[in-house]
Design goal:
The chain is α+β, with helices and mostly antiparallel strands. Helices cover 21% and strands 36% of the residues. The chain has a five-stranded antiparallel beta sheet, with helices on both faces. It starts with 10 loop residues before the first helix and ends with a helix.
């Protein structure tokens, strides 16, 4: 993503923004055709290593069969945006622009094991269920075992 120098932020600030949003558009290619889905995600800081992003798509989602750890994937995370009219500048010789918050993260993707997936679903839902407090949080313990079995 092109970022004009005046708008560059420290990578830690960008990661914190993305982690706080927790929802983005994941994109990869199937041959020459782009494939994308909007996904909730978590960012795990790993000292001495780069951060890791975990997300979940349904097994029937075309992205699931493309997760082979070879191709790079893109996660685009958007925030607020606003149109800026040229009339708002002091100088009259201006063009319109758009201000926006966005972070792009990229890297290889791999499928989670069934055990990793169970932990990821609980961790992911715990993050977002906390946004709904004082509602009693949902947990996977509320679902019958067959519903959580791999298809």
């Amino acid at each position: 993503m092109y970022t004009p120098p005046a708008f560059k932020v420290h990578p830690a600030v960008a990661l914190a923004f993305a982690a706080g949003r927790g929802f983005g558009l994941i994109v990869t290619c199937d041959g020459g055709r782009p494939v994308a889905s909007h996904v909730p995600f978590l960012i795990e800081e790993r000292p001495g290593k780069g951060p890791r992003v975990t997300f979940h798509v349904a097994r029937g989602n075309p992205l699931a069969r493309l997760a082979d750890a070879r191709a790079g994937w893109l996660l685009a995370v958007n925030g607020a945006d606003a149109y800026v009219s040229p009339d708002w500048y002091v100088s009259p010789d201006q063009v319109p622009t758009w201000l926006y918050q966005a972070v792009h993260l990229s890297g290889p993707v791999r499928l989670l094991s069934d055990d990793e997936l169970a932990v990821q679903i609980d961790t992911l839902s715990a993050k977002f269920e906390n946004w709904l407090l004082p509602k009693r949080p949902w947990t996977s313990a509320k679902v019958t075992a067959p519903r959580l079995e791999p298809e």
